Amino acid sequence: METHDKSSAAGCDMRPAKIKVWDILVRFFHWSLVMAYIIVWITSEEWESAHNYVGYFIGGLLAIRIIWGIFGTKYARFSQFIYRPSTVLTYIKESLSRKSKRYIGHNPAGGAMVIALLLSLVGVTVTGIMMTMNAFWGVEWVEDIHEAAAIFTLILVVMHIIGVILASLEHKENLVKAMLTGWKRS
Description:
CATH topology: Fumarate Reductase Cytochrome B subunit
Distance between the termini: 8 Å
Structural class: mainly alpha
Radius of gyration: 19 Å
CATH class: Mainly Alpha
């Protein structure tokens, strides 16, 4: 992980070079999912029709992201950010002591969080779809799993936000801005 500086001829302008990390599809997925997730929480009790339609939209987003995680751009591919559990735990330990290595793409904890969120959201989506089918209509265990997976996803979202804040502070970079623009310093 090198840092390249752009300097003016006089040597006064020392800005770090930037690299395009998050492509438009990853950013569209991320922010669409954020908005859709908020809507499904708001509509979960009172507006079933909207809740269901937005749930289907989330299912579509997940399908696209999973495909893009296999065939997409460099930093979008799962192969770029899936690490061994020992690497994830070491990264978290180093991060807690504010001594973790900076990554251009997802760091090991961030990569693990992406996978955990995708799996959890798939669970919520599948059980949500099951709840609309005649075969599972009113089946208590399906509803219980759907609700538990939704709560677990919310816990993961909170952990994700905390992790983004901590990583942004530790490495002195605005990860939210990077997810909006697609650019990070190299």
